[in-house]
Write a structure and sequence with these properties.
Layout (H helix, E strand, L loop, with lengths): L25 H16 L5 H7 L4 H29 L2 H20 L4 H29 L10 H29 L6 H17 L7 H6 L6 H8 L3 H14 L1 H17 L1 H4 L3 H19 L3 H8 L3 H21 L3 H29 L5 H13 L4 H8 L5 H26 L4
Helix pairs in contact: 1-4, 1-5, 1-6, 1-7, 3-5, 3-9, 3-17, 3-18, 4-5, 4-7, 5-6, 5-17, 6-7, 6-13, 6-16, 10-16, 10-19, 11-13, 11-15, 11-16, 13-16, 15-16, 15-19, 16-17
Length: 424
């Protein structure tokens, strides 16, 4: 299989002949990605609100977090292969609509565990489809014939930065609305739904990068076709399993520590501003992640392609700082930990996407991106794991155990990089 845009699997092969669109057509997809990411993460600073207003326990609130992951994983694994078979536009439109449905369920269901879990499940499906299909679509819209001379790192960063902006701005705005606005359990979701509705306007005018499939893909793909497309190609398995997979969970593992675990460690120091502080920690972490992403290619050059190890090193330092916050609560130290963990998130996210896109072709780009994002979001199970393990040891000890796990994953990645380079 060829991996160039004009090869057998590109727009001039099974995907059909794509026509050049004026300007930079990836920008028409970006608002939808931002809206879906906003809808996935703006719930995070509201976790403390639900504990205060509805009286939910830490385990139940983290269960809502867990149901988000339950929706993410099938969304990742199905949306990628589906878009490889039927085109990119329709699955992305479905993702936006699912995000609006999730916000509606969460807005009316704050007092019921079942509705909250259902809303978070729908949000997970929405974010998964947007991330996998949207990332593949943006990458394809950043290549010939849609746009010329875009270096591979920029193709990955465009989607990553858009998603990061949605995660960060959504959390910041919703946290502020929940802290100071009226109807705090409803207004944040209404704002997200309006944004998602507006994003459909440019999205529907974006060019399809696999137009022939989009025209002929009205039939329902069989389960066998989806499973076949879901396989990681043999040529990519060693690199994916040895380098990408061990690092991937720390993308959102680091993010979850920054804005789901750390805020709960300093509630005694924030008084009546607990929700606003949680939003601030989320924004600081994701802002650091966004700011570092353009520098990942420079890190790659400086480290000889070992930028994933830099990201995991930041995750290790950030986790140790988080453990320090657990033993001695401090708002400034929590902000520092969130920033360092945000750097880890940004570096590992982009470096992992670059690795995936380097070995994927147009035929399997969606599926491989889905596998990658599925692995990244396993890190969002970390808060629930820490809550369940709380009776076993103090938070600081548990976080140090997490740091050891980060170091172990870094060692596996280092070995995988040596094998890939032929030096091991």
């Amino acid at each position: 299989m060829a991996d160039g845009p004009d090869g057998p699997d590109g727009p001039d092969g099974p995907g059909g002949v794509a026509e050049r669109s004026p300007g930079r057509p990836w920008r028409r997809v970006a608002p939808a990605l931002l809206a879906c990411a906003w809808g996935g993460n703006h719930f995070t600073p509201l976790l403390l609100l639900y504990r205060q207003v509805e009286g939910y326990s830490a385990v139940v609130v983290d269960l809502f977090f867990g149901f988000y992951v339950v929706g993410l994983v099938p969304g990742f694994l199905l949306a990628g292969p589906l878009s490889d078979l039927v085109g990119r536009k329709r699955p992305t439109v479905v993702a936006v609509v699912l995000g609006m449905a999730a916000s509606a369920v969460l807005a009316v269901g704050s007092g019921g565990v079942v509705l909250m879990c259902a809303g978070r499940f729908l949000a997970g499906l929405s974010v998964a489809a947007a991330m996998v299909v949207g990332t593949s679509w943006v990458k394809e819209l950043s290549t010939t014939p849609f746009e010329d001379d875009v270096e591979p790192g920029l193709r990955a960063r465009r989607a990553a930065l858009t998603l990061t902006a949605g995660f960060g701005v959504g959390a910041g705005v919703s946290g502020a609305l929940a802290q100071w606005g009226p109807v705090p359990t409803v207004l944040p979701y209404a704002v997200q739904s309006l944004l998602a509705l507006v994003s459909l306007v440019p999205l529907l005018t974006a060019p399809e990068t696999r137009p022939l499939l989009a025209r002929t893909g009205l039939r329902r793909p069989s389960a066998a076709e989806l499973l076949a497309d879901l396989r990681v190609p043999r040529r990519a398995r060693r690199r994916f399993l040895g380098v990408v997979l061990p690092a991937a969970p720390w993308v959102f593992g680091a993010a979850a520590l920054a804005y789901a675990v750390t805020p709960a460690l300093i509630t005694g120091r924030t008084g009546g501003l607990a929700v606003a502080t949680a939003a601030l920690l989320c924004v600081v972490g994701l802002a650091a992640g966004a700011l570092v992403q353009p520098w990942v290619p420079r890190l790659a050059a400086l480290t000889g392609g070992r930028q994933l190890l830099v990201g995991l090193g930041a995750a290790l330092v950030g986790t140790v700082l988080c453990a320090r916050v657990a033993s001695s609560p401090s708002v400034p130290l929590a902000l520092l930990a969130s920033a360092v963990l945000g750097v880890a998130y940004g570096v590992v996210l982009v470096a992992g996407l670059v690795e995936v896109q380097a070995v994927a072709t147009a035929r399997d780009l969606g599926a491989m991106t889905g596998w990658y994002y599925s692995a990244t979001y396993l890190g969002f199970l970390l808060p629930e794991a820490l809550s369940l393990a709380a009776p076993l040891a103090p938070p600081a000890v548990l976080l140090l155990a997490v740091a050891v796990l980060v170091a172990a994953c870094g060692a596996v990645v280092a070995v995988g990089l040596r094998v890939r380079d032929g030096t091991g």
